[in-house]
Amino acid sequence: MIRKTKQGKLETTIAFIGIILMIILTAIGYYIRTPYLYGQTADGFVIREKVEAGTPVTLSYRHSVQKTMVYEYLVVNQTEDGLILKSTKYQSFGVGLPFSKEDGSFRQEGDWFIMENMNRAYPSLSIRNGVTNEEHITVGEKDYDLKALMPIEKELHLYVAPLWKGYWMKKEIRS
Q1: Which of 38, 19, 57 is nearest to 164 (CA)?
Q2: Which of 127, 32, 118 is nearest to 75 (CA)?
Q3: Which residues contact 104 (CB under 8 A, 6 or more apart)?
């Protein structure tokens, strides 16, 4: 049994330590639940950027066949566990580029073709950094030049997950 000291100092000390521990555990709990966009290659993680619902993520690259720039505009979904393709902007029609009414609302603006209201959900994305595609990923305001971050022709797996789960979601990369 715990003995009381003069004027309850032991109880006060135990209560103070308990409050401090609760504050620390709450802070840790908040931190590990924070969502991040992860970019993983076979060699490890090249992107780990804090995000929240609605954070813009832009993929920009040179189309491998048409040799024109393509911009794909995504956002982190409301449940912070995936991405939603909102629109795409490109300069020429080609293989793999959207063009039909089922893909969204199409319009032309100068030399650019823009497909909006696409709203395609992706739990994750896998892309390859090519020799001539000048690929960049922009998360919020931060730009990642894939040519500088990873070897050419490596696969990059993109996904959104809380910090505690992100490292356990590692995908087996074909490389």
Answers
A1: 38
A2: 118
A3: 87, 98, 115, 116, 117, 118, 119
Query: What's this model's pTM, rounded to 2 decimal places?
Result: 0.80
Is the distance from CB of 156 to CB of 123 less than 8 angstroms?
Answer: no
Residue among 166, 86, 153 nearest 120 (CA): 86
Contact 88, 75 (CB under 8 A): no
Which DSSP state fits 142? E
**Residues present in the chain in total:** 175
On whether the CB atoms of residues 61 and 55 are closer than 8 A, the answer is: no
Q: CB-based contacts of 27: which residues, under 8 Å, 6+ apart?
A: none
Residue entry with tokens 């004027």: 7
pLDDT of residue 6 exceeding 70, the answer is: no
Nearest CA to 134 out of 117, 152, 116 is that of: 152
For residues 64 and 165, the model is more confident at 165
Cα gap 107→113, rounded to integer Å: 6
With tokens 């896998």, the residue in question is: 126
Q: Which two tokens stand for residue 120?
A: 């395609």
pLDDT in tens, 46-99: 999 999 999 999 999 987 777 889 999 999 999 999 999 999 998 877 655 656
